[in-house]
Amino acid sequence: MNDQMRKKWLLAFAASGLCLSALVAALGQTAPAATGPAYAQTAATAAEPGEKVFAVNCARCHTPPMTLNPRVTGTILMHMRTRARLSRKDEKLLLQYLAP
Amino acid sequence: MLSGAFAYVQNTSGGVQSLVPQIIPVLLVPMGHSLLLESRVEFTGFFQRENLPSGPFSGRFAGKVYKTVDYAQLDWLADSHATIAAGRYILPFGLYSERLAPVWIRNLQDTPLTYSIGTHPYGAADGLMLRGVAASSASASIQYSAYMSAHCSINELQAVRAAGGDTSIFIPSKRVEAGLSYQRTLEGYQINNEAAYLSWQPQRASVDLKAEYDRNHYGDGYWIEAAHIPQQFPVAPVFFRHVQLVGRMEQLFARNGGGNGLPQVNEKRPEVGFNFQIRDDWRLESSYGRLFSHSGNSNTWNFGFTYRFVWPLWPGRKS
Q1: At what angle are helices A88-98 and A70-84 packed, to 10 degrees?
Q2: Do A78 and B232 count as a contact with CB atoms less than 8 A apart?
Q3: Which residue segments constitute the domains of chain B, with CATH numbers given?
Q4: Span B170-212, pLDDT tens digits
């Protein structure tokens, strides 16, 4: 690929990035969260401590979880306490939130 | 409990098509409130068209299925601040390898160009690891990992002697995390691997920014990724709430001839992605990237889906 073509690709990528940034800026803050764990999104809109723990810790790496079977919630939280290096207190708050 | 994912990706790189189906079961067996046995295995098929006298990649699809044990470890949740893991575990190096690599989590299906730094050659270690949260308050939390790996040549459990650690600080009010990783391989040509990473989810915009810089004797490089869910898109908001737009820029600078899992020449790759979350457990993925390399430029296309599952195996626990 010659230099001209390369410049065109880089320009297109830069333009896409700018458009995305402009879109984000234009949209401003996120939509209010709907009720229930599956739609928890932001710490600002979190209603209870467990939801806040989820929003600031879990949502850093993945989207809100699928609807969890209460039978497995405790096991998943043991797993995530190890993976995400959570404290025992955070694990308890998440359990109260995800399996009230 | 059996969890995991089914995934399928159709990849086209430099005009060569690859079909990559994956089954990734995750087994979790709790034993009381303090012990957890966990394991993840990847069964990855890799199929490409065979070469024929009439031309390369012009025959029927052929390939094989590869099996990888990502981790098989026993966790002892010793107290609120420490967990001891024994067995085979994923190397906690940087932001990507341990947290973002699973196909159901990663935003783009191509791994970063720097992925081999700190994870080469097996991505996992056999030995002991201490990890947890050193201090946690409303204003900040500090996480840590420290590990020691032994040499192992058993099939599917291979590992090299290495030692290292990772630490990060997270500020909830700003939703910023910054971390450092270090690792030294202790066999063969002993090298240091280092990484610095940053993660930020601004409160005012539903954008997720992540960046990582890695370096070792064979090369150094960075990646910066932004992901956005247009939750307040003025048109068809219900549809756009399921859409994720992703952009990533990355660059690798080969040093001392490269190798050791890294490209031997300098490379850079801008990449954009469009994902659609059909349901909580189903996701469609697509991406396009352009690799600029001193050995030749090429396009990379990915199309695929991921299905995430969680199945209880027997009457479980809630507390």
Answers
A1: 150
A2: no
A3: 2-311 (2.40.160.10)
A4: 999 999 999 999 999 999 889 999 999 999 998 888 899 999 9
